[in-house]
């Protein structure tokens, strides 16, 4: 088991529950329905990645190097994707124009896709010993 990966999965899971509650209760009267939906998308994708990291950290089906690469892609991708979505959804609450960081969302999404692709490719091409 890789404690760092599992721990980061737990942190992302904890934060997604915290942010989900924040979005549902604190933001419901502050931002419009569309922005709430956007915020919830960030929470949902963050939780998916939290579960994925928990699995990745407890499964020994990949080589250590591949596991580390997938972990980094997923962690950085989640931060860029979900956290930029949170800021964009709350853009109307601040004088800072978070639309300027909107380019980070697709970069994060691309990193997530790369992490999932590498994970699947590594499983598919792994040589099994009989």
Automatic annotation (TrEMBL):
InterPro entries xrefs: DUF423
GO cellular component: plasma membrane
Membrane topology type: Multi-pass membrane protein
Subcellular location: Membrane
The organism's place on the tree of life at top rank: Bacteria
Homology family: Belongs to the UPF0382 family.
Designated name of the protein: DUF423 domain-containing protein
Originating organism: Flagellimonas hymeniacidonis
């Amino acid at each position: 088991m890789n404690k760092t990966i599992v721990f980061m999965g737990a942190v992302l899971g904890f934060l997604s529950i915290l942010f989900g509650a924040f979005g549902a209760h604190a933001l419901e009267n502050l931002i419009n329905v569309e922005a709430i939906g956007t915020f919830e998308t960030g929470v949902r994708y963050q939780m998916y990645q939290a579960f994925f990291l928990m699995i990745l950290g407890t499964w020994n089906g990949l080589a250590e190097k591949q596991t580390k690469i997938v972990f980094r892609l997923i962690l950085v991708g989640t931060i860029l994707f979900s956290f930029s979505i949170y800021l964009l959804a709350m853009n109307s609450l601040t004088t800072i124009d978070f639309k300027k960081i909107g380019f980070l969302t697709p970069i994060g999404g691309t990193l997530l896709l790369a992490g999932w692709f590498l994970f699947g490719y590594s499983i598919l091409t792994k040589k099994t010993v009989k």
